[in-house]
Amino acid sequence: MRPLPHPGVSARESYLACIGKIRDPEKKKRYEAATDFIDNAASRFETAARQLRMDVLIPEEFRPEDAGLEVPLRITSDDLSVKLYKQRMSHKDSPGRVIYDRIRLAAPHGICPLCSVRQVKTLDHYLPRSVYSALSVTPLNLIPACLDCNTVKLDVHPKSEGEQTLHPYFDRVTDVRWLRCEVVEGAPAGVRFFVDEPPEWTASMTQRVRRHFSVFQLAELYAHHAVPEMSSNRSTLQMMKKVKRGEELIRSHLAEQARSALVADLNSWQGALYEALSSSEWYCSGGFESLAN
Ligand SMILES: [Zn+2]
């Protein structure tokens, strides 16, 4: 997970931009009447997010139907989660699209902050708009994401502290090592990625990182990338093995690759991979020969 700065657009600004060009006066009045409701919902979300306790937010309080808004002027959850978000924010040339793009393009190098691998293509609602409709166009609830991360998460939302996935605007987990890998000996050789919690983490922090890892299927994703990477390096290792003290050379070559990847990102799958390979006696002494083509 990669951290991101806050989007720098308030919930009110975003909501007013999205409803800005509604022509039908009755419809416009209904949306305008909900502005404070949206603003209050966003404030409650931000307060909870700063405490990393988004699980305490009650879905009913984020639905206009259940929140006690005056009936004649009341918008519905569908007005917010479908009509407003889909038609007036994410749709090309819609009034809120400039804010949508600003958030989408904020991820460095266009890399998805949730998986740290694939390319950002969309926005993911941290709390799903189908459940928390008042947060449908709230910038702090919108995270740049790749299509896969957006799809696998679906309407998952936390019901306890440990069920919260990591939130790139609020969580900071990049300064300690927590991603590790181990070699699976056999033919073909394989690897397994896992969360190795540092001692300073609380039990709920550990649960959250494991939850993030599992919801976004990161063990499978990283292994999927690691195996072809290992295969592409096999011929280099075969050549190294032929020289005097070849095994030692292989070990230091792999360790150097680990060091270089870990300097760039302490929890990169490449860093974890090369560290595991360089410390596997089995792999360095010839286990790499058993890699699948
Ligand atoms: Zn992703």
Compact summary:
With 293 residues, the protein is mainly alpha-helical. It is 45% helix and 7% strand. Helix 9 packs antiparallel against helix 10 and helix 10 (246-264) runs antiparallel to helix 11 (269-278).
Notes on the structure:
This protein has about 290 residues and is mostly helical. The protein folds into two domains: about 10-160, no CATH class; about 180-290, no CATH class. It is built from twelve helices and four strands; from the N terminus they run αααααββαββαααααα. The chain has helices spanning about 10-20, 25-35, 35-50, 75-90, 95-105, 145-155, 205-215, 220-230, 235-240, 245-265, 270-280, 280-285, and strands spanning about 120-125, 140-145, 180-185, 190-195. A two-stranded antiparallel sheet has the order 1-2. A two-stranded antiparallel sheet has the order 3-4. β3 and β4 (about 190-195) form a beta hairpin. It is elongated and about 85 Å long. The mean pLDDT is about 95. Zinc ion binds near residues 114, 146 and 149.
Please describe the structure with a list of short key phrases separated by commas or semicolons:
293 residues, two-stranded antiparallel ribbon, 2 domains, mainly alpha, binds zinc ion, 12 helices
- Extended strand count: 4
Structural class call reads: mainly alpha
Radius of gyration of CA atoms, rounded to a whole number? 23 Å
Ligand roster: zinc ion
Helix percent reads 40-55%
Strand content: 5-15%
| Number of helical stretches of at least 4 residues | 12
Strand order of the largest sheet: 1-2
Distance between the termini: 30 Å
Order of helices and strands: HHHHHEEHEEHHHHHH
Mean pLDDT: 94
Our count of domains comes out at 2
Note the main sheet. 2 strands, antiparallel
Spans of at least 5 consecutive residues with low confidence: none
The backbone outline, from C-alpha atoms, is: elongated
